[in-house]
């Protein structure tokens, strides 16, 4: 009898230790029939709506895109013949095949000759909602962006616009699609039209996630831990820059605002504008799909989302996040992953670091 009494007392003591804030548990956030609405959910949803709004149903400019134009753009997006040696397509660096999240999950991407560029390839998903394209904003829209990599000597390395058109004018399979996409033009196969078509296809690449469900009224869409993560995301100050429906993508900010970033070689927008105030300014990345698009920052230097969250909080807000707060914020950021999208292979830097431990 005494043995059972002691066991019962130990059990009660263990139960009584559960009042402290715990490390987030593994939970999928999936709804069940018995799932109850968290008391914080309604107030948090209203605050989130005021801070972020709702992602629009369509991208700017898509109202004039025809099915024929989009189909042509999709074909071109995946065509490696847009590169000098037929080895690279748009999809090579911004992968959407196999439900990937619009990136190649590499720190920087290799070009036609295997030489890497100097910046991380951002996701193509939702890109048409951004204020501009590229990390430094040098392209005003998707069409202008689509023209760049094809002629970049490190990326796809085609020697000129004329060389691209000469090459594709010999491909019988493109004659009819260009005519259908641009029916009013006597000579539809132009470099400008190629970029136009690719942009039209990219305007269809919009993701929807569980946070969207939450914003639209499903108060059970986020788990207890994820709601805590959203609360911390707001209170820590992340939403100062990561605002709007994309939680980013709508402004520029200095990387290393309060504490310096270790990479001082790449000066961001300054390389384009030559304005002193633009040194180290980069477009604020969107948090949509961020859990699927490692590695992070413009140089791909941070292999994990946990590392990136801690680093950005210190650099931009001068706050040193503890491991528990970091895990909660990462929990929330995972709710921003597009439904059915998956992460690609782990970045080489992460694998290498694990082997060296």
From TrEMBL:
Q: What binding details are noted for the cofactor?
A: Binds 2 heme groups.
**Keywords from the named record:** Heme, Iron, Metal-binding, Oxidoreductase, Periplasm, Peroxidase, Signal
Q: What positions does the domain Cytochrome c occupy?
A: 68-179, 224-337
Q: Where on this chain does heme c 2 bind?
A: 238, 241-242
Query: What residues does heme c 1 bind to?
Result: 90, 93-94
- One Pfam annotation reads CCP_MauG
A GO term from the CC aspect: periplasmic space
Q: Which residues form a coiled coil?
A: none
Subcellular location as annotated: Periplasm
Q: Which InterPro entries match?
A: Cyt_c-like_dom, Cyt_c-like_dom_sf, Cytochrome_c_Peroxidase/MauG, Di-haem_cyt_c_peroxidsae, MauG/Cytc_peroxidase
Keyword check for Metal-binding: yes
User: What molecular functions are annotated in GO for this chain?
Assistant: cytochrome-c peroxidase activity; electron transfer activity; heme binding; metal ion binding
Name the record gives this protein: Cytochrome-c peroxidase
User: Which organism was this protein described from?
Assistant: Uabimicrobium amorphum
